[in-house]
Amino acid sequence: MGSRISITALDGSGSFGAYVAEPSNPPRAAVIVIQEVFGINAGIRDKCDALAAEGYLAIAPDLFWRIEPGIDLDPDTQLQQALDLFPKFDQQKGIEDIEATIHSARKMVNGGKVGAVGYCLGGRLAYMTATRTDIDASVGFYGVGIDGLLNESHAIARPLMLHIPTADGFVPPDVQKRMHEGLDNHPRVTLYDYEGLDHGFATQFGKRRNDAAAKLADARTSDFFAEHLA
């Protein structure tokens, strides 16, 4: 069971909450878990707990706090409510809040490395974190609209991994094609396709999960962080 902390926004507009899961021993590094459109729900908290079991300090910042603090939605029953939040979310402010979380995380691990992993909206933000912050390593699961951000790929200075389900209803084949064309030859980017799988396949709970593929993607992510956050 994790705890809650408060992080001060970089623009001085206030502070926001974050769920924190700590390992039993001193952490090897920190990982920021970037939420889906469902907020810091049970699945995101469980992702943090799993990372803590691997030895990381895991932090999930509440990026929707400027809309409404503490949003916690069920993907299987509250999808439309979650999608209604997306246009209200200021993504650049979200990146600033992730940057503030990076600063807090580095202090909590005594200047050690900090990675990030995000899902859906968080997958897009993980890509933006790789291009707009000094994060040490980033992983994005089924990030939406990354093709519109490929002009930022030159700014990726640290390793980035993207997990792409080929039957993603939110990321059609033409978008996936542009992602591969724009990133396959980037020396710091690794892309993995998951044939025939849909958006949300790696969720911790619920109908969207494909257990075998989720375990494979999580294992690849674990190996990636073990290499780049050591």
Describe the structure in your own words.
With 230 residues, the chain is an alpha/beta fold. The protein has a single domain, classed as Rossmann fold. It is 33% helix and 20% strand. The chain contains six helices and eight strands. An eight-stranded mixed beta sheet has the order 1-2-4-3-5-6-7-8, sandwiched between helices. Helix 3 packs across helix 4. The protein is globular and about 40 Å long. The two termini are 25 Å apart. The model has no long low-confidence stretch (mean pLDDT 97).
Which shape, going by the Cα principal axes? globular
Estimate the strand proportion. 15-25%
Low-confidence stretches: none
CATH topology: the name is Rossmann fold
What tags apply to this protein structure?
230 residues, alpha/beta, Rossmann fold
Topology overview:
Blueprint: E1 3-8, E2 15-21, E3 30-34, H1 42-53, E4 57-61, H2 79-83, H3 91-108, E5 114-119, H4 121-132, E6 137-141, E7 160-165, H5 173-183, E8 189-194, H6 211-228
Parallel strand pairs: 3-4, 3-5, 5-6, 6-7, 7-8
Antiparallel strand pairs: 1-2, 2-4
